[in-house]
Design brief:
heterodimer, B: alpha+beta, 12-stranded mixed beta sheet, 7-stranded antiparallel beta sheet, globular, disordered N terminus
Chain lengths: 191, 336
């Protein structure tokens, strides 16, 4: 995804995109899950910053965005609608301000620039540095950023080990608030 | 003005110009703040995480993605924790004295792991002198998060076999308002930040009950005998570990019962006091589903699997760099 498209999404949620560009972007978002994902992430950042995250389990935001976009696209095919706020605000509680999304990126950057770059909010980031190539061995290297490169049965078994390991690690190593944060958070990658 | 000292105007100008330089020089050349003070903060944090009652909302950033979650935690003897997703697929994890229950709405499954260490979530006491051989502890600045004063604590690894940490600790309770997992070169891999946090005197049971689940969910919880069975330290299991990262020691050894199949798997826990790695060795037959071959990872957690002699398979998993999981797995051998 180019920076220009990200800026457009930012402007879209900021209700600052010219009507013609808005229609084109909405049409692209209907068929492009990556654009919808970026939109929902910007929304989440905004909600987190303004402490407007929901109190209860939230249905998949991406699905809701899709549903709204379907409606919006149908509407757009009829008559032009100048305002975006009508659907943006009820959906996420707030319209996303581009400046706030940028602020979140800055906030999440490491304090000092480091080789290999920091963590990016807007793009799928790179995985941690991998080990040097091993000597000839009886296994193959799996090039994946999550368990997703594995078959379902392998992933499922790894998750069972991870849950178990997390509890032993929490008692034997660095104390953490939420040892199972990855089990709750890595849904899309695992499927 | 009696009793007061007035700086001549030119001197004031110079002082204003020189002050930043003076502060910079102080910052550069003053000795590092004692590691002991940072370590004491870490100790406070450890106790706060386990003992306090709290509920909060946080965002968790990993691999360029951002998830929002809510946590409710009851500390002390009757410790119990509920963690659930506010974005993405609806998922919940409940931790209590009996085990860990994972409720995954996207796979319509409930998985219960009872093969765990017993008792409250208390962590082992740590030894600063020993840890200092492998990490540098220091205090960062004072910041503000969630309108609270926070103390930054920095833990840097001295080699590439373990990660480092940065914490922003609430100065009153020492709970981590923000935390980062970082590489040896200082790059942040994962971050977690509270957007709301309340410390409470009491948490109702109702707040700790799961909302997800139901009859249509498939439940996996192994058999009652699946609970972890400790293996005595002097027992010979028939496996050797040719390589461990410097400072890693055996911290536990047990038979682990897999929650889905009930299969018994031999489990070793190695760690340096902060970083922890698990080694699972499973006996395989024609009915066993395929195991991990090679390296894989979920964010900062790395796993390495490989086949061993006589139909055995080893899985190494932990919040450590890939090279650590890989070298450890490659070093597993049958005892001579």
């Amino acid at each position: 995804m180019t920076d220009q498209v990200k800026e457009q999404i930012s402007a879209l949620v900021d209700d600052a995109l010219p009507p013609q560009e808005r229609s084109l972007l909405l049409a692209r978002m209907v068929s492009d899950p990556a654009l919808r994902e970026t939109w929902s992430r910007y929304t989440l950042i905004q909600d987190a910053l303004r402490n407007h995250l929901p109190e209860q389990v939230e249905p998949d935001l991406s699905d809701r965005v899709m549903a709204v976009l379907d409606t919006e696209a149908a509407h757009d095919r009829g008559a032009a609608r100048p305002r975006l706020a009508g659907w943006t605000r009820p959906l996420a509680g707030l319209a996303v301000a581009a400046s706030v999304a940028v602020l979140a990126v800055v906030m999440f950057q490491p304090d000092a620039p480091t080789p290999g770059g920091g963590v990016q909010v807007a793009d799928a980031g790179s995985v941690p540095a991998s080990a040097p190539a091993p000597a000839a061995e009886d296994y193959r290297r799996v090039d994946t950023s999550q368990w997703q490169g594995q078959q379902g049965t392998v992933s499922e078994r790894l998750n069972q080990y991870l849950v178990n390991h997390n509890e032993f690690a929490a008692r034997n190593g660095m104390p953490v608030v939420a040892p199972h944060v990855r089990i709750v958070g890595y849904d899309r990658e695992q499927r | 003005m009696p009793g007061s000292f007035r700086v001549p105007s030119i001197a004031r100008v110079h002082a204003a110009r020189l002050l930043p330089l003076a502060l910079l020089a102080t910052a550069l050349f003053s000795p590092p703040v004692a590691a002991g003070e940072a370590f004491a903060w870490l100790d406070r944090m450890s106790n706060a995480i386990q003992d306090l009652n709290y509920r909060g909302t946080f965002v968790y950033q990993h691999n360029g993605k951002l998830d929002a979650m809510r946590i409710v935690h009851r500390g002390g003897e009757d410790s119990r924790q509920r963690l659930f997703a506010l974005s993405g697929a609806a998922r919940e994890v409940i931790r209590d004295q009996e085990g860990v229950t994972c409720i995954l709405s996207d796979s319509q499954a409930v998985m219960v792991d009872r093969s765990l260490p017993r008792g409250p979530f208390a962590a082992l006491p740590r030894d600063l002198e020993q840890l200092s051989r492998h990490y540098r502890f220091s205090l960062g600045g004072i910041g503000r998060m969630l309108q609270r004063r926070s103390q930054v604590v920095v833990i840097e690894p001295r080699d590439d076999y373990r990660y480092g940490y940065r914490f922003w600790l609430d100065s009153e309770h020492a709970l981590p308002l923000r935390s980062e997992l970082v590489t040896a070169s200082g790059a942040a891999l994962e971050q977690m930040m509270f957007t709301r946090l309340e410390v409470l005197t009491h948490i109702d049971d109702a707040e700790l009950r799961p909302e997800l689940g139901g009859e249509h969910f498939t439940r996996y919880e192994g058999s009652p005998s699946a609970a972890a069975q400790e293996i005595p330290a002097d027992a010979d299991s028939g496996w050797d570990f040719a390589w461990l990262p410097p400072g890693f020691e055996l911290r536990g050894h047990n038979w682990h019962g897999m929650p889905v199949s009930g299969q018994k798997v031999e489990h070793w826990i190695f760690g340096d006091g902060l970083a922890t790695v698990s080694v699972y060795i499973e006996a395989r037959d024609e009915n066993t589903p395929p195991g991990l071959q090679g390296l894989s990872n979920m964010g900062a957690v790395n796993a390495m699997g490989r086949a061993l002699d006589d139909g055995y398979h080893v899985i190494v998993v932990g919040e450590v760099p890939a090279v650590t999981a890989e070298r450890l797995a490659l070093g597993v051998r049958r005892s001579e």
